[in-house]
Specification:
With about 350 residues, this protein is mainly α. The protein has 13 helices and 4 strands. Mean pLDDT is about 80; it is low at about 1-10, about 15-20, about 270-280, about 280-290 and about 305-335.
Length: about 350
């Protein structure tokens, strides 16, 4: 049966290899990831209707696009499980960088918005955040389109290149994605500085997610460029290394960013009177000054033992009477006054 499988479908050799258990494991993890991502997409659509805070709602469309990118990453894993051929090569070189660029650009847009919010500023509109995310990822799309088009117009050059040349081109094609990762990492660190503590938890999620992603990328790129040739496992381990990094990073996006964000969103929606997340921990200066002045006036009025009375004229306009010490004098009821005295008053 094993020989029949190899002879009949050479492109799907890794599916039939009894020693290549990594393909079965990654295939299962990718399939589970697709199901979980779809459920999270439905949960986001359900909770978007209940969010009342505009600053919190503005980032939800970008997070929805982020989930679509993660869904694409799990689907792309199957292109690496199947053996490298003329059908899977363009898909790998095009979608790998584009999907990761979309995910990291969404994190970058969210972190940029948080930099304003932690300092007490006003949030960007949802269209602005979404345009930043999509616009930043367009450059990687253009680079990938030009590379794949150039390789295919030259007579499918992928099949005539050595494994080392293929790996070098694959990594060089992802330089812009590495730049996005570094930029998102430093901007997420800037969210730690500011008086608004409630928004910092979102910045910490982005910071940890990008930090773990950088570690994953350093490991799989090192293995692809140095580890596999030194261990004499090139190209046998190349697809496995890239696919493991792909699936692992996609799960990191879900476990460290999307699911915690969804929990925060769910808790805020359950509150009957949701607090304004944009409020800072410290009371503004003008409010503190106003309160202190009111307290000083109240203490001064209480110490003098005087109170202020306001009477209304027959036309309804308020007249402020002279302050009378209640401990020494008594006010004469209006009903006991004569018409002449009443007119005098």
């Amino acid at each position: 049966m094993y020989e029949d499988c190899v002879e009949s479908t050479k492109d799907y050799y890794l599916f039939c290899d009894n020693e290549g258990s990594w393909g079965i494991v990654l295939e299962a993890l990718a399939a589970i990831g697709i199901v979980v991502t779809i459920l999270l997409l439905l949960a986001f659509l359900f909770l978007m209707r209940k969010v009342q805070d505009c600053s919190q709602w503005n980032v939800l469309p970008t997070q929805f696009v982020f989930l679509l990118g993660v869904l694409g990453l799990f689907g792309l894993a199957f292109a690496f499980i199947i053996q490298f051929n003329e059908q899977t090569a363009p898909v790998r070189y095009f979608l790998f960088g584009v999907l990761f660029a979309l995910c990291f650009s969404c994190l970058l847009a969210h972190a940029s918005n948080l930099v304003k919010l932690v300092r007490g500023g006003v949030s960007f509109s949802w269209t602005t955040i979404l345009c930043i995310a999509v616009g930043v990822s367009l450059l990687q799309t253009i680079i990938a389109i030009e590379y794949v088009t150039l390789m295919m117009t030259r007579g499918m050059m992928f099949e005539h290149m050595t494994p080392y040349q293929l790996n070098v081109d694959f990594v060089v094609l992802l330089v812009y994605v590495l730049l996005l990762m570094a930029l998102t990492f430093f901007i997420s660190k800037a969210t730690f500085c500011g008086p608004c503590e409630n928004w910092k938890q979102h910045g910490r999620l982005i910071f940890v997610t990008v930090l773990i992603s950088i570690i994953i990328w350093v490991v799989w790129i090192s293995m692809l460029m140095r580890g596999n040739p030194q261990l004499q496992r090139q190209p046998q381990w190349d697809d496995a290394v890239i696919c493991i990094g792909l699936v692992t990073n996609a799960w990191v996006f879900l476990l460290l960013y999307i699911i915690p964000e969804l929990c925060i969103l769910y808790r805020s929606c359950r509150q009957d009177c949701p607090a304004q997340i944009n409020t800072c921990g410290a009371v503004p200066v003008y409010q503190r000054t106003f309160r202190s002045e009111n307290q000083e006036l109240s203490r001064a009025r209480d110490s003098d033992g005087a109170e202020e009375d306001v009477a209304l004229t027959s036309f309804g306009s308020p007249i402020q009477l002279q302050t009378v010490d209640t401990t020494q004098e008594y006010l004469i009821p209006r009903a006991t006054l004569s018409p002449q005295q009443d007119a005098g008053v």
